[in-house]
């Protein structure tokens, strides 16, 4: 990223906060400027909702499967790093991978 673009995004973040949209040509982009904001949103909304509605006999998606396996492995020392933070990193990886795939497809 060029210095000019970086400084422009910093100014926009100061003016509009950690999440904002910008229009570049005919496209509108959502800018997420802070991992902790993304983490907080997913943790409070997505993960907590999955925990409340989890049916171990009928997992709906990756998050459900992860939470089920987390419970199965809770006493296994090889899985001590598992938890919400690790799950959030996986979700973030999926988000970035999906964004790149979408971006490449649109081009």
UniProtKB/TrEMBL annotation:
<keyword id="KW-0479">Metal-binding</keyword>
<dbReference type="GO" id="GO:0006805">
    <property type="term" value="P:xenobiotic metabolic process"/>
</dbReference>
<protein>
    <submittedName>
        <fullName>Uncharacterized protein</fullName>
    </submittedName>
</protein>
<comment type="similarity">
    <text>Belongs to the cytochrome P450 family.</text>
</comment>
<keyword id="KW-0408">Iron</keyword>
<dbReference type="GO" id="GO:0016712">
    <property type="term" value="F:oxidoreductase activity, acting on paired donors, with incorporation or reduction of molecular oxygen, reduced flavin or flavoprotein as one donor, and incorporation of one atom of oxygen"/>
</dbReference>
<dbReference type="InterPro" id="IPR050182">
    <property type="entry name" value="Cytochrome_P450_fam2"/>
</dbReference>
<dbReference type="GO" id="GO:0020037">
    <property type="term" value="F:heme binding"/>
</dbReference>
<keyword id="KW-0503">Monooxygenase</keyword>
<dbReference type="GO" id="GO:0005737">
    <property type="term" value="C:cytoplasm"/>
</dbReference>
<dbReference type="InterPro" id="IPR036396">
    <property type="entry name" value="Cyt_P450_sf"/>
</dbReference>
<dbReference type="InterPro" id="IPR001128">
    <property type="entry name" value="Cyt_P450"/>
</dbReference>
<dbReference type="Pfam" id="PF00067">
    <property type="entry name" value="p450"/>
</dbReference>
<dbReference type="GO" id="GO:0005506">
    <property type="term" value="F:iron ion binding"/>
</dbReference>
<dbReference type="GO" id="GO:0006082">
    <property type="term" value="P:organic acid metabolic process"/>
</dbReference>
<keyword id="KW-0560">Oxidoreductase</keyword>
